Protein 1
Amino acid sequence: MQSSSPPRKSMLKDIAIELASDDSDLVYYSWMLKYPSALKSFHHIITRAHKKKIVIFLDYDGTLSPIVDDPERAFMSIDMHSAVKDVAKYFPTAIISGRSRDKVFELVGLTELFYAGSHGMDIIFPAKDTISVNRLNYIRSTDKQGKEVNLFQPAREFIPMINEVFRTLVEVTKDIPGAFVENHKFCTSVHYRNVDEKSWRMIAQRVHDVLKDYPRLTLTHGRKVLEVRPLIDWDKGKAVEFLLESLGLSNANDVLPIYIGDDRTDEDAFKVLREGNRGYGILVSSVPKESKAFLSLRDTSEVKEFLKSLVRWKEQMSNVDG
Ligand SMILES: [Mg+2]
C-alpha cells in the first residue's frame, strides 16, 4: 500500500498520459486543463446557476449539426432536435448563426426559440417577450404563423449591396468546380470545402478582388468559407447583449448565460461573457485552439449530452420543488 499521494500536477499529467492513445490526444487532454469539459464541470455550472435564470445561446453549424460537405444538408440528428426542444421548455433559448434567419429556422424548425441570423444582424423574437421596444431599427412585423414579432436588423441598408456582391461572386466563381456562394441576406459566403486545394488561393484572390470595390464590406475567414459582411459594429457578442437586454435578462446577478459555439465568429460572444464575468462560453472543438471560452465540448454529440444534462437537472429540481 502506498501511503503518500503524488502531487496534483504530476497526477494530472499521469491521467493525461493514461487517457491518451497517441500524441494528439495527449495535446488535447493538456489543452483541456485550460478549457475543461463542460460535461465534467456540470456540477460547478449548476452550483453557480443557483437561483439564477439560465439563458442558452447556440450556434448552429458545427455545434448542433455536424459540418458536412453540402451546407444545404447540415441537418441536426433527431436526438439533437429533441434535446434542443427540451432545453427550450425550461430555459430561454436562442440560435445565433451565420446563416440567414430563414434558413436556420428551416433547419431547426422550432417556433419556441429565438433566432438571430446573419451573425446576429437579423434577430426575431415574439413581441410579447420584448421589454425595451424603443430601439432604433426595431421593426414590428408578423411571422409566418401570423404572430406579432419584433425584428432587429442593424444592417438593413446593406441588403441591396449584399445582393449585388452575391451575384458578382457567383459570376467570378462559376468556373471553379465545387465553389458555392450562399446569400444570407445581410452577408454572403463563399464555401470552398469542395474545391480542389490547388484552387484555394485563386478563389480567395477573386473574392478579395471583388471586395476592393466595396469598402463598406469586410471579409472574414471561417471553416473553409470566406464570409463577406457589412462593416458595422455588430457581431454575435452584440447580438447576445441585445437579446439579453430586449428580453429583460441583462441583470448579471440574476441571469447565467451559456453560449455554445465552434466558430471564430463565436469568439465575439465568448469575449462578451468573459469580460462581463457573466456565465459560460463553451467552445466546441476536437482540436486544441486558443479561445475566449471558459469551457469546452469535443463535438456535437457532447453538446447534445450537455443539453440533456441541463434538462435532467431541471426536471429533478422541479420534482424536488413540487
Ligand atoms: Mg459554427
Protein 2
Amino acid sequence: MKENSLLQKETSKVHLEVVDANKKYSANFGEKKDLGLPPARKFAILTCMDARLDPAKYAGLSEGDAHVIRNAGGRASDDAIRSLVISHKLLGTAEWFVIHHTDCGMEYFTDEIIRSLLSKSLSTASVDQDGWKNVSEDGGSKEANNISFLTIANQTESIIEDVQRIKHHPLVPSYIPVYGYIYDVKSGKLIEIPEATKVGKAT
Ligand SMILES: [Zn+2]
C-alpha cells in the first residue's frame, strides 16, 4: 500500500513496530468490543510510568477492569487527582491504590538538578557516579523553574504523603479507601506500607 511504504520510509523502527503490534492485537479483539466504559472491577491504580512496571500484569488486570493513572513517580499531582475524581464521580470506582516502586528514577534528582540541566539544554542528559550532566549545551529554557517535578527523597514517606493528599482532598469522599504500596522491581512483589493504608482508611 502506498501509505505504508511512505510510513516505512519516513519513520522509526519503533513507530513501525507499534503499528504492526496493534494490527495483531486488533485482529483478535473479539469480545472486548462489548466492554463497558466504567471499570468493571470498580477500582483505580495510581502508579509510576517506569517501563518495568506493568500494572495489568502485577495487579492482574484485563481490559475494562480498572483505571490506571500513571505519571513520573506515581505522585498525587493535581492532574492525578483530577483523574481520580472523575474515576469515582462519573465512573464509579470505589477504592484506589497508590503504588510507588523501588529504584524509582524520581529518587535520583531534585528540582534544582533538573532545572539547572534544562536551563542549558533540552537534550537527554547523562548520568555517572558524579551525577547528572548535559552532553551538550545547545540551548535550554528556564521554564522548568515553574514546575515542581515531585521528586522522591524517601519512598515510604512519599507513599504516605500521596495517600494523605488524596484522602484530604476536598473533592475526594472520605468513604473511599486508599491503599499504599511499593512495588519491588527485583521481585515483582507489592509491599504494603501499613501507615499509608492506615491514613487511607475509609471513614
Ligand atoms: Zn518510578
